Amino acid sequence: MAQFLPVLLGSDANVYGMARSFYMEYGIPSACVCKRRLIATQNTRLLSHVVVEPRLEEDEVFVKTLVDFAKAHSDLPLVLQSCADGYTILLARNRQALAPYYRFACPQLETVLALDIKENFYKACEAHGLNYPKTAHCTAGNYKTVELPFEFPCIIKPSNSMAYWNCEFPHKKKVFLAQDRREFDEITAAIYSSSYQDPLILQEYIPGDDNCMRVLNCYSGLDHKVKLMALGRPLLEEQTPEGIGNYAAILSVEDDALMEKMKAFLEDMEWEGFSNFDMKYDSRTGEYKLFEMNPRQGRSSFFVTASGYNLAKWLVEDVVEGKPLELTIAHTQSLWMIAPFGVIKKYLKDPQLLQEAIRLKKAGKASHQLFCKEDFSFKRLIWYIKSQLNYYRKTARYYGNKSLKD
Fold first, then answer.
1. Which domain holds residue 299?
2. Angle value at C-alpha 268, between 263 and 272, nearest 5 degrees
3. Same-domain check for residues 81 and 194
């Protein structure tokens, strides 16, 4: 058994995926530290300790909570991993205070802010020759009069994900799609009626179904060299207001030319730790257009572990064992799901991709994010069955709806 304790920041499906990765590789449960306990990490054996602190997003509370936990578990090395953007920013801002107690891979604060804030990310893309959708911005002061440099439809999303997560307004969605100026005005007015007052990103809509998306997960070592890259092709996105942009199913795929570009980008930015890119293939130009970079492993990143490249292994070998690691590019084929396969079959429109998904499932090369046979309990099984059945209802209700209505 490995002689360390993983400490995960957050309590969502991403945390469950990382805890599962640690358990699969090392046979040990993890600890989680979070603002509140979410359903995905309840009734699980994969977490040995859970610390809930509602004020965790305050710097002093964040540091005190983690230092207190470290002092109470000083008999083992502690491996700290953020599973949400806000926690990565907190970790980067307080890395000096936490470094004596934890092993972690996290970029400097200025590097995180240079890529997590979307306007900054697009500037970095432009400087490195990476493509992104035609983009404009609006603010609380000019959203009523802003002119778009492209035609409708228009994607509307927050620049500051953390601030948007904490705001509330009727019919809130993670991302909106305005078909015309009337919808644009209604959506932006609703957003700015809330506590969210940061800029909004306005982007041209790239045509194509969910399966035109790509998701890339990487790990960059303490030496700022990329050690692991794994590319996935989403088959379907989640459809709920809070889940838009999250993936419901992913096929592992390859693209060496894309990997080479993204490796150069990460190393030039001196990134450290996990990173996650969302992009879409634009059939009009034959190019990938980058949407965002998340300063952590993606919510769906368990697809990397499930395809044979355990995320926990790269982190531990780097920050605990200090092994020299060369670049590994994932090359196996697998199917990852968080939604039921029946939902995938019903809503995936590409027949070739559907046949490939069916083939992988029959070959035993499919995994489900939230179902782990080693984590069986009656309470968790009941929740899992209910949540899977609920996917049918949620998808039917919200499918294709990115407007200001439910």
1. 210-398
2. 75
3. no
